[in-house]
Amino acid sequence: MKCRIVILGLIAFSFIRVNAQDTRFSQFNATPLQINPGLAGMGNGYNRANLNYRSQWSSIQNSYSTVAASIDLPIFSEKMRWKKGYIGLGTSFYSDKAGDGKLGTTEADFVISSALFVGAKSKIALGIMGSYIQKSVNPDNIKWNQQYNGYEYDSSLPSGENFAAIATSAMDMSAGLSYRYFTGSKAVTNSDQKLVEFGLATFKLFEPKFDFYLNGESKASRRFVAHGRFLSSIAGTPIVLGGTFLAMKQNVSQEITLGPEIRISLLTDTKYTGYIKDSYIGMQLLYRNQDAIIPVLFYKFGNFKVSGSYDYNISQLNQASKGNGGFEFSIQFNDFEGQLFKQGSKHVTMRGSAGNL
């Protein structure tokens, strides 16, 4: 009982009184706008939508629960073919709740990016994100360590906490630069395709402050991100091999996640000239430095891709979580036919965007 009180108290204390940390997802490639605003409009096809759910530390009552959603798309000329580049737009939302005190973060973002073609097979984009962030807490439901009388929890004891507000909000901005390279034929076999993508981004540029305490404040420190991925089809086989990485630093917290990826093609076909609609299964085996091993399984069918993953905790927090890590589920939709906004069946021929990688 005492251990649980201490854990919940530490969660509340870290959320309210010190520099707050951003929410993270293990399937970071399924949350593109959360790792780089420069990825807006950089997906395959016309439009891209993502939905993510994450549950962490289920052994603790009212554990962390996070929901995120995003949509991004390129804006083209009337003929849907710009010679030098295009504008990308995106919007995202996420909500994170945890603990008996419903410690929460709600964020809504709007992104605009400018992409330029740099060569016949690649493009580079700069994105700017504006964010509205709200943080909230219900202190009446939190069991504080000060309310432990030496033998048991006593709700009649004072918590020693002085709250000025139970909800506070702020505005902020983020920016990122991304690069994407794609090469390969638009044939049914897809046996010579390669994809390279990487980027740099900074979130919480103005380090917004949130006033919960009468005599203190919580500050969201800048978050620095570097990310990348590589995929290559193996000639004469239905196999695609590659890998991905994510490195982040926010105040004293830092994270490096990386690992290999394999895909096995189940079906490829051509619906429109030069348009490839495929199906595959695959997996990643990610390692988060000194924290977790994360197997990821996914299945793509048509325009949809579903993924599931589990964080197996290998740090000292494994004792507190009783071996329960984080389960995550995501659905991604790539609108190859332009159905989402009724753009028609005009094929997108933007450099660095075609193919099934």
Task: Give the topology, please.
Elements: H1 2-16, H2 32-35, E1 47-56, E2 64-75, E3 85-98, E4 103-117, E5 122-136, E6 167-183, E7 194-203, E8 209-213, E9 216-219, E10 223-233, E11 239-250, E12 253-270, E13 276-288, E14 292-301, E15 304-313, H3 317-320, E16 326-335
Antiparallel strand pairs: 1-2, 1-16, 2-3, 3-4, 4-5, 5-6, 6-7, 7-10, 8-9, 10-11, 11-12, 12-13, 13-14, 14-15, 15-16
Features of the shown structure:
357 residues, 3 helices, Porin, 14-stranded antiparallel beta barrel, two-stranded antiparallel ribbon, mainly beta, 6% helix
Would you kindly provide a written description of the structure presented here, covering whatever features stand out?
This protein has helices at residues 2-16, 32-35, 317-320; strands at 47-56, 64-75, 85-98, 103-117, 122-136, 167-183, 194-203, 209-213, 216-219, 223-233, 239-250, 253-270, 276-288, 292-301, 304-313, 326-335. The strands form 2 sheets. A 14-stranded antiparallel beta barrel has the order 1-2-3-4-5-6-7-10-11-12-13-14-15-16. The radius of gyration is 22 Å and the shape is globular. It has a single domain, classed as monomeric porin ompg (Porin, Beta Barrel), CATH 2.40.160. With 357 residues, it is mainly beta. The chain contains 3 helices and 16 strands.
